[in-house]
Design brief:
about 220 residues; mainly alpha; 2 domains; elongated; cell projection; cytoplasm; coiled coil; flagellum; cytoskeleton
């Protein structure tokens, strides 16, 4: 028990689990952002005005990128980003203007989503409340396979962290013992099946022989 507590309290273990939890939450939040924008009235008491403005700006940036809107048309949005910098000064002259603007869009969208994640994911109560509201209104999007896989990996990692070397060996021994019993049972079942089939074959042969003699006696 002491070993288990020490194992769980190691900094490396804590960091790994935090990374898993943080990544899952971020991916879940990114999936529900469009739903939050479409049903903003549901979150007036849960999400503060500035965070909601950040979410709206993020969705506007995404829409502008998807519709190939010139970057200059969304200057009023990108200038409000805390990490704003005039990214056009970094344009690569070897690339076309459209290519440079596409790169700039991705940069600004990354900064935008980081701001939102920083505001919501690190406020666990807010994030849980948002999911609870969406679930109660049946608006929570189905989890993507990648999120399900991450949760499975997290649970698997947690199980390994909770298992001491002694418990791991005992578990392996139990599996080996079970496999041995299964193999032995299969051998016994195969033997019984053979004996049963042989008995049925002998009985069929006996019946055929009786029928033959009965037919022979009747005919003579």
């Amino acid at each position: 028990m002491i070993f288990l507590l020490v194992k769980l309290s190691t900094i490396e273990t804590q960091r790994i689990m935090v990374v898993f939890d943080d990544l899952v939450q971020k991916m879940e939040l990114i999936e529900i952002l469009p739903v939050i924008v479409s049903h903003a009235d549901l979150f007036k008491s849960t999400i503060d005005t500035e965070t909601m403005n950040e979410i709206n700006r993020h969705e506007q940036l995404k829409h502008a990128l998807e519709t190939n809107t010139p970057l200059q048309s969304v200057t009023n949005i990108i200038e409000k980003l805390p990490q704003f910098e005039n990214y056009t000064r970094c344009f690569d002259k070897a690339l076309s203007r459209n290519a440079n603007e596409h790169i700039a869009y991705h940069y600004y969208i990354q900064q935008s989503i980081r701001n939102i994640l920083r505001r919501l994911v690190h406020q666990q109560n807010h994030f849980d409340n948002i999911k609870r509201i969406l679930q109660s209104k049946k608006l929570l999007p189905p989890q993507k396979d990648v999120i399900k896989l991450l949760k499975m990996l997290r649970d698997s990692a947690m199980e390994r962290f909770l298992t001491t070397p002694l418990e791991e060996r005992e578990k392996d021994d139990q599996i080996k013992s079970l496999n041995t019993r299964l193999s032995s049972n299969e051998t016994i079942i195969a033997k019984l099946e053979k004996e049963l089939n042989d008995a049925i074959a002998d009985r069929d042969a006996e019946v055929c022989l009786e029928d033959f003699f009965r037919y022979f006696i009747v005919c003579h």
